[in-house]
Amino acid sequence: MRMTFQFNFSIEDHLENELTPLGGGTLALDSSEESLVSESQKGKHRDKKCSTEEFDLPRDPSGEPKSVRNAAVFQDTDSSLSVANSSSNLEPYEKQLCLRIAKEHAMPKDLKKVLENKVIEMLPGLQRVNISVVKTILLKENFPGENIVSKSFSSHSDLITGVYEGGLKIWECTFDLLAYFTKAKVKFAGKKVLDLGCGSGLLGITAFKGGAKEIHFQDYNSMVIDEVTLPNVVANSTLEDEENDGNELDVKRCRKSKVVQDLCKCRFFSGEWSEFCKLVLSSEKVFEKYDLILTSETIYNPDYYGTLHQTFGRLLDKNGRVLLASKAHYFGVGGGIHLFQKFIEERNVFETRTLEIIDDGLKRFLIEMTFKSPR
Fold this sequence. Notes:
8-stranded mixed sheet; two-stranded antiparallel ribbon; nucleus; EC 2.1.1.85
């Protein structure tokens, strides 16, 4: 006689990383850390809607949205750019993604309050808040809304797909791109710039200090914008004011007025990329596209390539360019520069050019993307 037993059980979060997830996992991007987030853990945190309809996709005659992998149509009102490509061999890029609604974050009137409880550190030519201190404070406080710090801490991961996308860490490639700005003497003056997946916002801050006429900062998580990006921008805008010992009241008022005027060039957004596109495109009667989009370590997950490609296509000026920094490969996540370039080539919308290869440790790349010339 043969007996069959069926067991039903669940793995609790507090078991940490002792068990390997059956459905695959996500690795932290840091080369020194390999923390897994199981599919069961990710499922617990996904409270946002998941639907292909949220991607603002072109639709077929039946009214159904076309697949992310099978179509990409971008309308450029200035150049009447319209590109449509289809392929049946573009796996594995189509997956339903959880979308976080985008919102704009207002600049607080009291700039000093933005820097309360923040420890400021110096980088060459830049200031930034100490992120470890920010995390410690947020772990102790009841942050309004979703506290990604506690979730990241309990999961032992710098990434939780659809919940936390790594904005509370400055990844290596950001410093590669900052060094390239200086080396290549990149000009920001008079340009409209987007720091996409900004995290600490150091790329956009460099553009801000370089005289860009308008800078937008975008990150997936609102907590990152409020607790890290905004304070970093304020810290760098008030640097000259703090260093000057002038005591005259009129002089101080003039400096404060200039700081406020400069900060008006900056806008801050959180949310998923397709939702961010909808928000910015609807926020201005005639949307002026970006001359320059800066992005670092945003191509680690192939599931995001379709939305990222759409974002570039919809928001980049016809004569603009994207400067993108990435590792050669993201182990455990699946993305990387070569896979992304292959994705770009298959869509036939952009052309890419390698600007620099860094062989220090994990191989890293800096590339430039521009629209292909109309034929």
